[in-house]
Amino acid sequence: MGPPPPPDHPTSERVSVSLRSIGIPYGPVVLLRNREQLIAVRVVGSAAAGYSIEYRWESAPFSTTGFATDESGTGTTQEDRGFGVVEVGTLRFQWSRASKDSGWLYWPQGWDDLSVCSVTFPSVEEIDLENPKVYWYTQEMFK
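and the corresponding structure tokens:
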């Protein structure tokens, strides 16, 4: 059957996904997966009507029973010629503003095993991968 189609624009509960980008809401935790590694990303602040953001990220080994952080970091970026850069661990995304409440992460090249969770979470402590609404979207699904 497969996952339901993502919304056209991110909401506080869902990401938006296309062939080119991942739409993320600011505030909730967005969860990425690279093989057996989970990466939680949260935009914790935006300025200048969303043209710059501050973000936090944490990574953990994949587990359906909880999120046990093994690495974390913070960063800031702003649009320069239409794009900024969001770095989470070894992943590097181009980012651009969608609105004052959301933005776009562009699928990085060479990360074919990367997927994004269909739903967002209020915090890292509330990540629940046994939720029946959890689906993993890949860029390949949109080709």
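(Above: one complete record from the training split.) The chain has one domain: 16-138.
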